[in-house]
Amino acid sequence: MKRAIKRGKSFGEAKAGKDAEAGRGTPEGIAEPVKKEIEGNSFSLSVGPVHPALKEPVRFNLEIEGEKVAKVDFEMSQAHRGIEWMGTRRNPVQIIHLAERICGICNICHSMAFCRAVEGIAGIEVPERAQYIRTIVAELERIHSHILWAGVAAHELGFDSVMHYTWKMRETILDIIEALTGNRITKGMIMIGGVRRDIDEKQAANIRQGLEFYRKGFGKLCGIFMKDPVIRARTKGIGILSRKDALAFSAVGPTARASGVEKDVRQDEPYAAYPALDVRAITPKDALGEINGDVFDRIVVRLLEVKQSIELIEKSLKQMPEGKIVHEEKAVKLLADLKNAKGEGIGRLEAPRGEVIHYVRLVGEEAPFCWKVRAPTYNNLLPWGPMLLGAQIADVPIIAASTDPCMSCANRAVAVEGGNERVFDNEAMHRLSVEKTRALRGQLK
C-alpha cells in the first residue's frame, strides 16, 4: 500500500461526491463534515510525520475550517525493513526469528501465524499441550498490549499520571513473560509443530499469582478510564466509526468490535486451544448497553478484553493436558521434512490489534518461494477517514491512537519521481542497500 488515500481528492471530497451521486447524506454515526467552503476561512494543516503527540511516523494532511477538520488525507512514512524479502532467503525455522520482529509488541501472533501456515502445508500436527501453551502466551501478550495502549491513550489525552499508573501495572505481565521465556518483549516460544518451552507447576503458580493482581486491579483501571469526567469528555462522541463504515473499510480487532462488528478470529475460526475455551467477540454493549463506535467505546472493548484474557489463561492452565510440546524435536529432521514440502498455506490469528494473516508458499526448496504478511494496522488505516471528518484539531492525536496503529507493521517503500509513484522490487531494494552500505563504509575510512 503506497498511500492510504491517493493524491487528488481527499477523503472528504471523495465521500461527499459519492454520497451526492447516490442521493444520500452522511452515513449514520459519522460526524457531519463541513459541506460548504468559505473563501479565506479554509486552511491546510499538516500533523506529523514528526509530532510530539504522534509517536508513529505518519503525516495527516488536513483542511480545517476554524477548529474543525473538513477534509482528510494522510501519508504513511517509508520505513521499509525488507523482512519478507529476507525470509525468502532463509529456511522456515530461521524465519521464525524474523517473524517475531515484525512488531515489538504483537510478536507472538506473527511467529504463530507463520508457523500455522507452514504446518498446514507440511501436514504437521501440533500436540494438544503445545496448543494450550500457545494460547496462554498469546493471551499474556494481549494483556500486555492493551495495558500498554491504555497508557498511550492517557498520554495523548494529556493524562501522564494515568500513563505512569497503567505502565506500572504492565510491569507485572512483563515479569510473568520474562519468567516463562527469559525475555520481557520478544519471547522465542513458538516453533513449527509446537513450542520451545514447557510451563511447569511453579511457573503456572506464578502466572496465577500475576493474574490475581490484575483481577484485583481491574476495577480501579476501569474506574479511571470509564468514570473520570475529563476522559469521558475527551472520548465520548469523538472519532465515531459507524458499523456500516467499519465493514466498508474492513476494520479489524478492537477497532471493528467497538463499532459493533462481532468479528474475532478466535471465535470465527478457532485455532490453538480456543475451540475448547468458547471465546466470544466483545463489543461495548456488554458493558454499556449501547454502541456508539467512538474513542470511548474502543477504550471499553480493550478493557473488557483484558478481563477476558485473564479468564482464558486461567481456563487454559486448568484444562492443559500432559504430553509432548513439539511435533518433531530434532531440528535437522524437521528441516528435511520442510524442504520436501510443497504447497500454499495461510495462518490467521487474532492479534491484540486485530486479524493478522501470513501467506507462505513452499516449492520443495530450503527457503520459501513467497512469504507475505498482512498486519492489522493495514486494515485500520482507512477508517481514520470517517473518524476524523468533523473532528476538532485537538482530537486528532487520540483519534489516530485509538486504532492502536503500528506503522512498522504496515509500511511499504515508495519512490516519487516527477509526481509518479514507483514501488521498488526486491532486487532493486537489495542493490540500493548494498550501495548505501558500501558508501557509508567508504566514509568511515
Can you tell me about this structure?
This protein is an alpha+beta fold and 445 residues long. It has a domain at 92-378: Cytochrome-c3 Hydrogenase, chain B (Orthogonal Bundle). It is built from 19 helices and 10 strands. It has helices spanning 11-22, 83-87, 92-99, 108-122, 128-156, 160-181, 201-227, 229-235, 243-248, 253-257, 265-268, 285-288, 295-319, 331-339, 376-379, 384-388, 396-401, 407-410, 426-444, and strands spanning 42-47, 58-65, 68-76, 190-191, 194-195, 342-351, 354-363, 370-374, 415-417, 420-422. The strands form 4 sheets. It has a 3-stranded antiparallel beta sheet with strand order 1-2-3. It has a 3-stranded antiparallel beta sheet with strand order 6-7-8. Strands 4-5 form a two-stranded antiparallel ribbon. α6 (160-181) runs antiparallel to α7. The longest helix is centred in the first third of the chain and has 29 residues, at 128-156. The two termini are 39 Å apart.
